[in-house]
Amino acid sequence: MPALLTYFDVRGRAEVVRLILEEMSVPYLERRVELQEWPALKPTLPFGQMPTYEDGELFIVHSHAIYRHLARKHGLCGKTEAERVRCDVVEESFVDAQSQLGTFYWNSDFAARRDEYERTSLPALLKPLETLLSQNVAGPEYWVGSALTLADFVAWHFLDYVRPFSRKTIEEFPGLSAFKRHFETRPRVAAYLASERRPKTLTVPMAPFGGTPETS
Questions:
Q1: Selecting from 3.30.9.10, 3.50.50.60, 3.40.718.10, 3.40.30.10, what CATH number does the domain 3-75+192-211 have?
Q2: Which CATH number fits domain 81-186: 2.60.40.1180, 1.20.1050.10, 3.50.50.60, 1.10.357.10?
Q3: Confidence of residue 1 (pLDDT cuts 50, 70, 90)
Q4: What is the CA radius of gyration of the chain?
Q5: pTM over 0.90
Q6: Measured between alpha carbons, how far is 16 from 79 in angstroms, rounded to an integer?
């Protein structure tokens, strides 16, 4: 029976799950929860959070627990202990970056602070990530060694989360830009990004940014 991913009809924390499943050609089903369903569903879930992922007898909560399960299952953790450690470091770096940017997208002062954030805070957020990528001696096509890992999915998702806000800022970082372009050439990824299966928005409509197709 196909795995079941449950989340809102947005990209959000479930998008990395979708990307991995699409790239690995894994059949899966989705339950896309409507906002009006959420108040009744929330108390029934561990920690009151989505996404959830059901894979055989496994019922997994917390997005990064789902990511790591899929990474182990599909050989996306690195080939050596050094690569596995780097994969973890990259993943955690993007946990922090995603949290910072996501918090800003939900800030009630988003519109008033947008220009200043783009000019100062966003480059400061991207600069250490560019440095981290440059430390991969195999080059900027991958974050860990010379093969696909979980780190690449998490990194691309974050950069695509930045894209509708400030594509020009990403382009100021040649390594990050090169990685993003390379990842998007993967045939299964490209097919998913162009498909109707992909949710239209980054997040739900209540967010000051990312809740409508034109901001996604």
A1: 3.40.30.10
A2: 1.20.1050.10
A3: confident
A4: 17
A5: yes
A6: 21
Domain with CATH 3.40.30.10 in the chain: 3-75+192-211
Q: What is the pLDDT of residues 64-123, one digit of tens each?
A: 999 999 999 999 999 999 999 999 999 999 999 999 999 999 999 999 999 999 999 999
* Cross-sheet strand order for the sheet of 28-33: 28-33, 3-8, 52-55, 58-61
Cα atoms in the 13 Å half-sphere on the side-chain side of 149 = 22
60-94 b/e with 16+ CB inside 10 Å = b?
Answer: bbebbebbbbbbeeeebbbeeeebbebbbebbebb
pLDDT tens track for 111-149: 999 999 999 999 999 999 999 999 998 989 999 999 999
For the chain, give every residue range classified as CATH 1.20.1050.10: 81-186
CA distance 11 to 24: 18
